Amino acid sequence: MEKIKRTERIAALSRILMSRPNEVMSFSVFSERFSAAKSTLSEDMAIIDHALRENGLGQLQTIPGAAGGVRFRPLIVKNEAYNFLTWVSALLSEPGRILPGGYLYLSDILGNPAIVRGMSEIIASSWYDEKPDFILTMETKGIPVAMMTADFMNIPLVIARRQSRVYEGSAVNINYPSGKGSIETMSLSRRAVKDGQRALIVDDLIRGGGTARGLLSLMEEFSVEVVGLSFVLSQDTPPRKPIEKEKSLMFFSGDGENEPLQVRPAEWITLSS
C-alpha cells in the first residue's frame, strides 16, 4: 500500500480501533497495512490516545509481549453518564408508562439504538476490569442492551431461554420462583458456556429478583463464576433481599396510580460524578 499522510493514517487508525472495541490488535497488522514503522505507529497511537482521553471518548491501552498490541476501550465521563441517565430517567418518568398488571413500558427505550448504545457503554465501562468471558441475559427484552454491551466488551452474548429449543441441542433446565410468586423455567444449551468461565449478567429490569436469582442458579449448574449483574432499571424499595455485585443504571419508585412514577440515576453514577 502506498504511504499516506499522517493525518489520514491517524483518521484511519481511529476508525479501525473504534469499530473493534476491546480487541487487542497487533502493531504488525497496522505496520503492513499502512507501510509504516512500529515506532511511527506508536507515536500515532499516543496522539489518538491523548485526543480520546481529553475529550472523554475512551482510551487506548498498549499490551506488551509477543501476543500484545493495542486496544481501544470506550469509557464515558462520569458527569456525561449522569447527564445522559438523567435525560433517560425523564423519559421513563413520563405519565402513562405503567401498564395493566404493574408492568413498565420500556419498548421504545430499548428499541432506540442511540439510547441503548449509551446505556451499554456505561455498563461496559464499569465492568471491564472484571474480565468476563461472556454476557448472559434472559430472553427477550434485555437482549438489545446485552448485545451492545457484549459488542463494547468484545465478548459473546449468551441467551437463556424460557424453554429449550431443539436446534440448540441438549440443555440444562431449572425452575425458579418469579417475582409474582409463580414457578417458571429457564433453559440454556450445554454448548453455550464452559466450566470455569466468567459471566456478566445484563438485563433490562429487576424488581423481585426472581429471574436474576434464576440466572445465578443456572450459572452454578455450569460451574461458571458470575462477576456481576447489571440492569437498566431497578425498583427503589423492592420486596427482595439485595443481590451481591448488582449494579443498576437507574431506580424507579411509585406505581403510576397511587404514587407518581419517578425514575432517577443510580447513586453510584451520582456519587462518581
Q: How many beta-strand runs?
A: 12
> Proportion of β residues?
25-35%
Shape from CA axes? globular
CATH topology of the largest domain: Rossmann fold
| Element-level helix/strand string | HHHEEHEEHHEHEEEEHEEEH
Determine the mean pLDDT.
90
Segments where pLDDT lies below 50 for 5+ residues? none
Number of separate domains: 2
Structural class: alpha/beta
State the share of residues found in helices, binned by percent. Answer: 25-40%
Strands of the biggest beta sheet: in what spatial order? Answer: 6-5-9-10-11-12
The largest sheet, given as strand count, sense and whether it forms a barrel, is: 6 strands, mixed
Q: What is the number of helices?
A: 9
Which CATH architecture of the largest domain?
3-Layer(aba) Sandwich
- Gap between N and C termini, in Å? 45 Å
User: C-alpha Rg, in Å?
Assistant: 21 Å
Structure description:
By secondary structure, the chain is an alpha/beta fold. The protein has two domains: 6-73, Winged helix-like DNA-binding domain superfamily/Winged helix DNA-binding domain (Arc Repressor Mutant, subunit A); 78-271, 3-Layer(aba) Sandwich (Rossmann fold), CATH 3.40.50.2020. It has nine helices and twelve strands. The chain has helices at 6-19, 27-34, 38-54, 78-92, 107-110, 113-127, 143-153, 210-221, 267-271, and strands spanning 59-63, 69-73, 98-99, 103-104, 134-138, 157-160, 171-177, 183-189, 198-206, 225-235, 246-253, 262-265. A six-stranded mixed β-sheet has the order 6-5-9-10-11-12, sandwiched between helices. A two-stranded antiparallel sheet has the order 1-2. Helix 1 crosses helix 3 (38-54), helix 4 crosses helix 6 (113-127) and helix 6 packs across helix 7. The longest helix has 17 residues, at 38-54. The protein is globular, with a radius of gyration of 21 Å. The protein starts with 5 loop residues before the first helix and ends with a helix.
